[in-house]
Amino acid sequence: MPLELVSPEAPPTVADRRRIGHDLRKLVPRRLQALWTQPAGRADPVHTLIETGRHRIPSLLPIRYDRMRQSAFAFLRGAAAVMAADLAATPASGLMVQACGDCHHANFGTFASPEGAPVFDVNDFDETLPAPFEWDLKRLATSFVVDARGRGLPPKACRALARSVVTAYREQMAHLSRLDPLVAWRSRTHVADVLAGIPDGRLREREMRTLQEVTLASQRHYPKLLERERGGWRIRARPPLIVPLTRKADDTHELAARTAFASYAATLPEERAALLSRYRLADLAFKVVGVGSVGTFCAIGLFASADGHVLLLQAKEAQASVLAPYAGRSQYANQGKRVVTGQRLMQTVTDVFLGWTQDAGDDRHCYVRQLKDQRMAMIGSQIADAALPYHALLCGQTLARAHARSGDAAQIAGYMGSGTAFDVAVAGFAMAYAAQTERDHRLFLEAIKAGVIEAHPA
Description:
The chain is α+β, with helices and mostly antiparallel strands. It has 2 domains: 14-216 and 374-449, no CATH class; 228-370, no CATH class. It is built from 18 helices and 13 strands. The chain has a 6-stranded antiparallel beta sheet with strand order 8-9-10-11-13-12. A 3-stranded antiparallel beta sheet has the order 2-3-5. Helix 3 (61-68) crosses helix 4, helix 4 (72-78) crosses helix 18 (421-449) and helix 6 packs antiparallel against helix 7. The longest helix is centred in the last third of the chain and has 29 residues, at 421-449. The chain is globular. The two termini are 39 Å apart.
């Protein structure tokens, strides 16, 4: 479903748009946002996972399932298709945004801007698609509750986390709705500002030191991933998670990777193609990534300049979004283009090498980006581990900014209001759906024990 654009001839004021959002409460009262009960005839979550796995590399599925069985939160991360179907059955205001589609708190993190400045933002868009704003927000709030319950936090603290996510989202959306659209569009979260706001002084100082170290380290050549060989750089093998691709005629993954990077380069804007032309493809490797993404095709391309400077690009398969059966098919036939467009809409700072593959003879769609620097990504993970309430506020604010770039911030703010009714309702949903996730996780573990699905570590 395409996003509706405001007519440039007669744009309504912020006040008018807030009233429109406010009036939607008559159609979908905010208290209904709390509703979750397992519907009769709900699909078996294990069956849903098996079905989604049919389009993945079979040999990697046991690794995916092993990662999902580690905890209820890990299961939630891999079960985006399950929750998408459930969210589609819940009340929604109809206010559309470019949704992340897999909005849990581990899909927010730290990365470098094109200028090298560390920023914090949503960083996974495999499932992005226009959808009701509540779907992302409910999944994000639920992820905090599921994680917190897994850490042994009491129910009151879990509910408070969910409420803080929604409150931060609501207040930030109201703030953005009042800004000059250009100012709102450009707003970003600098990691130094994020760390400065950590209430725990010792944690704040530790993370500040880490930021300085990884910022300097990012200027060096990925020491754990690359190695020198015959005077050049090569990708270090770490099977089965990282497998260098040979130049054998029958190596289908190697051929697919070369084809992907070649077609990607041909579709880049001219100025970025000129930049990429300063490098040549020196090595390739197959990589297993994430939790939800395990089993999809993913290749690393090591590009090197004549003087030994390196660039690591990742070509990652893009399948149809899990939201598509419920929010409507993407307007883009190429799923890689869908992911890239969604990322550009949601992120304030986007990778200059972001693009997609386009090969008429290949039905596998990929998007291409610079490989994430895991050292920098660790900063966000460490904040989540050591200061979960602060991370909740940060993710709520960040999601609001991402949604405001494509959706109508004033209408969304008008619907949510200035009180806490919406916050309480979504927190109630998060608590109920966290319990559902734990039940689904137990069914998943039983299926592994019964041999219905196979799970084993890499």
